[in-house]
């Protein structure tokens, strides 16, 4: 079945999911960031009883609500696509992948939906304490929602806590807690939520700077800038720490992605980290002996330290991962990609033979085939790979996206530190150049988040589930024209929704906190 799938169908299916996910991630991080900032502002209102903080919190709540509504719409479409475009994937791992999504819907989303109503319509109808609790619980619900979605994604990056059942031809969950609290899930959750806090902070600082530029609502703008910048600075520092943790997990579970992030082909001990690099577009394959860089400035041993916590640790490159033969961290010798493909094909054949033997009632043959399958199951997905070059992700896209994310991460630390310094020590309301810089920084928060997801998702290709299920074997067998049509329909709808959100946001921002 999988062999007959048109490659253009794979590309269009990937494009449609990427389109939906990228639009969805325009809204989610701002929801997470604004939820924290407006909750802090309402806490100040609760403690001081100063109506100024109530008015300030209500302004940012209004923008939160507009963004939240559009984000929900794109998220629902994303979940439907698993059933329509990725039915093979859903069949194979639906029992596992569906659990965190179900919990997200039943608990986290229900929590958000319940308390968001009190948050918006409960002013002057419930006590200040009850309303404050509702605001915090709305934010906590949004964060828990992100947690379960990221658990599902982390499991695809590092599948744990399951076993393959040859009778049902499905992977079944064996250890829920191993899935829910894997180190990859924890790192991904922290990194993603903190990046949302940064975007919320960038948004609040940028919009507040616009009020200063227009010489409106000075007190409101300065107060919002101070809270936004404190949240942003703390989140920026923490995101650097969580990024280091994420990179370490990638090194342990997805060494090919790490190698693509670094444009790193030949492994070595004491591997350097590329500080500045321009990739050589003439390099076409992993073994063509062309140097991968036109320009590169490297920091000695730093990649080894980040990947192994040892300055002299060995880090395999793309060529080593394909050819095998190097000593892995667990002491075993890595086998080549060709051997993995051969063992994957053995596993697929053994599965077919097992099912045939069971159908024929030949238990002895079935037991033998089941053992062969068990011995090779970890390479099952490699059986669908036709060429070892398919195992190498888009190095150029992964490499540059990673650097955009890291550079912007460093920029945000400097930006928020400067904003705080000027807000407390200098005459920030008169510094128009700083107002314009803060407004210019808003789109950079979105670019950093999108770049991070490109690293995460493009860097793990060709896998939908790492080492288990390649993308080519995950999709539904549909007409290419159907996927193309829905792609452009979604593109049109999402763009209309985005334009509508921006226009509504701008309209409300222009009204200001007095409205």
UniProtKB/TrEMBL annotation:
Membrane topology value: Multi-pass membrane protein
Segments passing through the bilayer: 22-47, 59-78, 98-123, 135-156, 194-213, 220-241, 400-424, 436-456, 487-506
Organism for this UniProt entry: Bacteroides sedimenti
Family: Belongs to the cytochrome ubiquinol oxidase subunit 1 family.
Short name of any one Pfam family annotated for the protein: Cyt_bd_oxida_I
Keyword annotations from UniProtKB, A to Z: Cell inner membrane, Cell membrane, Electron transport, Heme, Iron, Membrane, Metal-binding, Transmembrane, Transmembrane helix, Transport
Protein name: Cytochrome d ubiquinol oxidase subunit I
Annotated localization: Cell inner membrane
């Amino acid at each position: 079945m999988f062999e007959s799938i048109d490659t253009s169908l794979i590309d269009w299916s990937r494009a449609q999911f990427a389109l939906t996910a990228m639009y969805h991630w325009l809204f989610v991080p701002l929801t997470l960031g604004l939820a924290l900032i407006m909750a802090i502002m309402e806490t100040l209102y609760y403690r001081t009883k100063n109506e100024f903080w109530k008015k300030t919190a209500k302004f940012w709540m209004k923008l939160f609500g507009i963004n939240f509504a559009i984000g929900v719409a794109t998220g629902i479409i994303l979940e439907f696509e698993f059933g329509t475009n990725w039915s093979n994937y859903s069949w194979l791992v639906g029992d596992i992948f569906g659990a965190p999504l179900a919990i997200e819907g039943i608990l986290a989303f229900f929590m958000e939906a319940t308390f968001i109503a009190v948050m918006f319509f409960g002013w002057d109808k419930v006590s200040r304490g009850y309303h404050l609790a509702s605001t915090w619980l709305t934010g906590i619900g949004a964060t828990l929602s992100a947690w379960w979605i990221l658990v599902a994604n982390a499991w695809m990056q590092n599948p744990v806590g399951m076993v393959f059942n040859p009778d049902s031809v499905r992977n079944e969950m064996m250890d829920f807690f191993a899935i829910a609290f894997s180190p990859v899930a924890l790192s991904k959750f922290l990194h993603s939520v903190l990046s949302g806090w940064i975007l919320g902070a960038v948004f609040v600082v940028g919009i507040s700077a616009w009020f200063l530029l227009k010489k409106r609502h000075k007190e409101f703008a300065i107060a919002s800038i101070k809270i936004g910048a404190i949240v942003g600075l703390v989140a920026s520092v923490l995101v650097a720490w969580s990024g280091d943790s994420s990179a370490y997990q990638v090194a342990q579970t997805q060494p090919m992605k790490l190698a693509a992030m670094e444009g790193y082909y030949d492994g070595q001990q004491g591997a350097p980290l590329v500080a500045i690099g321009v990739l050589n577009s003439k390099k076409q394959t992993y073994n063509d002996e062309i140097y991968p860089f036109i320009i590169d400035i490297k920091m000695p041993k730093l990649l080894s330290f980040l990947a192994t916590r040892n300055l002299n640790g060995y880090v395999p490159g793309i060529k080593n991962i394909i050819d095998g033969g190097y000593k892995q961290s667990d002491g075993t010798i890595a086998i080549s990609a060709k051997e993995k493909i051969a063992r994957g094909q053995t596993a697929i054949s053994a599965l077919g033979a097992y099912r045939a033997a069971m159908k024929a009632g030949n238990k002895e043959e079935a037991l033998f085939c089941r053992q062969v399958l068990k011995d090779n199951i970890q390479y099952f997905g490699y059986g669908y790979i036709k060429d070892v070059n398919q195992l190498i992700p888009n190095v150029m896209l992964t490499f540059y996206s990673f650097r955009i994310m890291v550079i912007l991460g460093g920029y945000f630390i400097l930006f928020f530190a400067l904003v705080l310094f000027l807000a407390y020590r200098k005459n920030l309301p008169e510094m128009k150049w700083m107002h314009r810089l803060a407004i210019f920084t808003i789109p950079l928060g979105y670019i950093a988040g999108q770049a991070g997801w490109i690293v995460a998702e493009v860097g793990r290709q060709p896998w939908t589930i790492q080492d288990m299920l390649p993308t080519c074997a995950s999709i539904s067998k549909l007409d290419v024209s159907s996927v193309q049509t829905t792609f452009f329909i979604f593109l049109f709808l999402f763009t209309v929704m985005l334009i509508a959100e921006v226009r509504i946001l701008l309209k409300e921002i222009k009204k200001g906190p007095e409205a």
